[in-house]
Write a structure and sequence with these properties.
With 752 residues, the protein is an alpha/beta fold. Helices cover 31% and strands 22% of the residues. The strands form 7 sheets. The chain has a 7-stranded parallel β-sheet with strand order 10-11-9-12-13-8-14, sandwiched between helices. A 6-stranded parallel β-sheet has the order 15-25-24-16-23-22, with helices on both faces. Helix 6 crosses helix 7 (185-193). The longest helix is centred in the first third of the chain and has 16 residues, at 222-237. Mean pLDDT is 91; it is low at 1-19. The chain binds adenosine-5'-diphosphate (ADP) and zinc ion. The site of zinc ion has 8 residues, from loops.
């Protein structure tokens, strides 16, 4: 996806933003949050004029649903069948660019408009103002009296305490008052019955105080100041423009884009910061609060229901000025969005892999284009897509070539495991083991990176050779020794690790094959018993609070060796960390997905960037069996741009993205023959010519997932081909029974 396409498509627009003669009748079209391809007609409510973007309540069958006023009615519905909008919610309407964005995304990813609109109505309970919680305050009539009106014969110590609390503090929830006064809620109730306290609505939770652009600006170095000025200037000038903020790890990219945020705040606009992994952004939140005086609004799946509702409304009313969030934050009802930042833009976590399959980075560019405001893509290892857009001049670029404060980039070296193998049954080469011991002795921190959760990727019965499989997925179960369970990493199924082989009944016959992070931890603990270890994977904590606590421990130096998966690669700044050991640098190169090389480069570069971020220099050891591989050679040489150029040339010759387009077609269902049949028919009816090539059908690498059989086809198209139109035509020609699902994945990132 390119902004050129964004332009072409944006101009074809939705009809919602055509105000001419609006609406001309007493009917409107309303999009419902259901997988329907278009809006439904309704009659306007009495005495309320609706406009496009209004959130309304409508009847459908026996249900009442929220909906979004889309535009003028189709007029195709019988007068007799036409039902009336029940009410308009007292909310600002979604602005026209927001509506056009929904239409654009639906068309591009080939999802029903209603399914996309559902993401913009993700918190239906937020449409009505929340009922204010009620608390107690002193009754004004008695507040000035002696003992606040409490007659001596009724005065108990508990009653006195409650009244004294209220005399000094604000109104409070009854439960809160009782807790603070150390009495039962009945005491509070009794005072209410005596008329000495009265119930009043309390204000709502956090107030979303506006961040102050002038709160505590950082003194930028010369490179940073130039970059910040370029970005802030674009914000002040307004208008669409995409810019890559390309800076080495530790160069201060965050400080720089904070200045763009400050400029947007000064211009009275809202800002969205998209991050790949919000659960781990505690450090980022602290830095934001230090710079702007208050924390930003957060948007992610771990918010409480009340917080979610409050935040959604605050965004719609323009009170939440800066929102930091995961993918779905892109669909919040911003009242006046004026800048988007996509941090770590190369991360594949921006691709949503279920429901509506969209890439939040690409759609963010479209959002900025439709809203006519700037967007900044931030990375030390930009995606090939973005680099090509920079080279063709579609995106601008500002660069930060060196680390802030004179910190040097770490030195990378490959450890050739053929020449320096790990001792039998172990996984760390003597070189890395020695480096760990030295780092520990120097009182510095180390990070061992292995992108494999659990103890071992494969568990095998020594007696009969059985590998324990997930019943619902074509995948082996992974042993998690710390919790004594075998887990499926695809569907989440888990079972206790059996004592006996379920097949041959041999006792204690399971052997672990290969390493996971838990096994590496065991090896390190055995060789460095005094070292304090911490595992950092998605298994090691539940929710952002626990993650934050662990990050804090590490920052405070309570940990000597961190052993982690890709979670540790992202954005952390641990000043005492000086050694990074990559246990298996070859891991991501197998598998042969078209981005395997690019992703491995990005991930390992990012991990390496955790080392030596402060005064003490860092070093990075990459354990590999193929040090001559171009990815490893480029990492060691520190030559990102040559690597990217070669990668781009290779993709261009083969017509792979971003030089050609791809779409994945996944056929799935519980009934294997039915799935097979649909896949075969799709193959037979596949479009030919027109710069289009269809590969497959073939069994998906994950041939069984959550109990569903899967077949894949891959559509390869020339860059200019009208991919969506061709796909729509094709899919319409093949009947699909209800039990089979055909999913279209435009610009796929996963080929499993
Ligand atoms: P990046 O995102 O490019 O890896 P960061 O923005 O995280 O880099 O900056 C790295 C570290 O350097 C952070 O701790 C940051 O606070 C600090 N830093 C960067 N620029 C400055 C500056 N101009 N003044 C003070 N500290 C800075
Ligand atoms: Zn499974």
């Amino acid at each position: 996806m390119t902004s050129g396409e964004a332009e072409a498509r944006a101009n074809s627009g939705g009809r919602a933003d055509d105000p001419a003669g609006w609406p001309g009748t007493d009917r409107v079209a309303v999009v419902l949050p259901l997988p329907l391809s278009g809006p439904y007609d309704y009659r306007m409510p009495e005495a309320v004029a609706l406009q496009p973007g209004d959130f309304v309540q409508v009847p459908l069958g026996r249900r009442e649903l929220p909906g979004l006023v889309w535009g003028a009615a189709s007029g195709e519905v019988d007068e007799a069948k036409l039902r009336r909008v029940i009410r308009r919610f007292d909310m600002p309407p979604l602005p026209a660019d927001g509506l056009r964005f929904l239409a654009w995304v639906a068309r591009y990813v080939m999802a029903p408009l209603g399914a996309v609109a559902k993401m913009a109505m993700s918190v239906p309970e937020a449409l009505a103002p929340p009922e204010a919680p009620r608390g107690y305050r002193l009754a004004p009539a008695h507040a000035g009296e002696r003992d606040y009106g409490l007659a001596p014969h009724r005065a108990t110590p508990a009653r006195r305490r409650v009244l004294a609390l209220l005399a000094e503090g604000p109104a409070r929830l009854p439960a809160e008052l009782a807790r603070e006064a150390g009495c039962s809620p009945a005491v509070v109730k009794g005072l209410a019955e005596l008329g000495l306290v009265e119930s009043v609505p309390l204000g709502h939770g956090a107030a979303f105080r506006p961040p102050d652009p002038g709160h505590a600006p950082v003194t930028l170095n010369a490179d940073q100041a130039a970059a910040a000025e370029a970005l802030a200037g674009a914000v002040r000038q307004g208008g669409y423009g995409a810019t890559l903020l390309d800076g080495v790890t530790g160069s201060g990219k965050t400080e720089v884009y904070f200045e763009a945020i400050a400029a947007a705040l000064q211009a009275g606009r809202q800002v969205l910061v998209l991050v790949p992994e919000i659960a781990l952004s505690a450090q980022w939140l602290e830095r934001f609060a230090a710079r702007f005086g208050v924390p930003p609004a957060e948007w992610h799946s771990d918010l409480s229901a009340a917080r979610r509702r409050e935040t959604w409304r605050a965004v719609a009313f323009g009170k939440a000025r800066v929102v930091v969030g995961a993918r779905s934050a892109l669909f919040l009802p911003f009242a006046a969005l004026g800048l988007i930042i996509v941090d770590e833009e190369h991360e594949t976590a921006f691709k949503q892999e279920d429901g509506v399959l969209y890439n939040a980075r690409d759609m963010a560019v479209v959002r900025a284009h439709l809203g006519n405001f700037p967007i900044v893509l931030v990375s030390a290892t930009p995606s090939l897509e973005t680099m090509v857009n920079v080279e063709t001049g579609r995106y601008g670029r500002v660069q930060l070539p060196s680390r802030h404060g004179g910190a040097r980039l770490p030195e990378l070296a490959a450890v050739d495991m053929r020449a320096e193998p790990a001792p039998r049954g172990q996984f760390l080469s003597p070189v890395l083991a020695r480096a760990l011991a030295e780092t520990l002795a120097a009182g510095e921190q180390s990070l061992l990176f292995l992108n494999r959760r659990g103890y071992a990727p494969l568990t095998l019965c020594r007696a009969c050779g059985l590998r324990v499989e997930c019943g619902d997925c074509s995948a082996w179960l992974v042993e998690h020794r710390l919790i004594g369970r075998l887990k499926c990493h695809h569907c989440g199924f888990s079972r206790p690790t059996p004592q006996r082989c379920p097949h041959c009944r041999a006792a204690d016959s399971f052997v672990a094959c290969g390493p996971g992070v838990e096994r590496i931890a065991e090896e390190v603990q055995a060789s460095l018993p005094q070292a304090r270890l911490a595992l950092m994977t998605s298994d090691s904590f539940h929710g952002p609070a626990e993650a934050q606590a662990l990050v804090q421990q590490i920052t405070q130096g309570a940990v000597d060796v961190i052993i982690g998966t890709q979670l540790v690669a992202k954005g952390h700044h641990f000043p005492q960390l000086t050694l990074v050991g990559v246990v298996d640098a070859d891991l991501g190169l197998a598998g042969g997905d078209l981005r395997a090389g690019e992703r491995t480069f990005q991930l390992l570069h990012q991990v390496a960037g955790r080392a030596g971020r402060a005064e003490r220099p860092g070093r990075v050891l990459l354990q590999t069996y193929q040090p001559e591989h171009p990815v490893l050679a480029a990492l060691v040489a520190g030559d990102r741009d040559t690597f990217l150029a070669e990668e781009a040339a290779a993709r261009e010759t083969r017509g792979w993205p971003p030089f050609g387009r791809l779409a994945g077609i996944i056929v799935s269902g519980r009934d294997r023959p039915a799935v097979e049949q649909v896949a075969q028919e799709l193959g037979r009816a596949a479009p030919r010519g027109e710069g289009i090539e269809v590969l497959g059908p073939a069994e998906a690498p994950l041939a069984l997932l959550r109990g569903r059989h899967r077949r894949r086809l891959l559509v390869k198209a020339a860059k200019g081909a009208p991919l969506q139109g061709i796909l729509a035509d094709w899919l319409m020609r093949v009947p699909v029974p209800n039990a089979v699902r055909v999913t279209v994945d435009i610009d796929p990132y996963s080929f499993l």
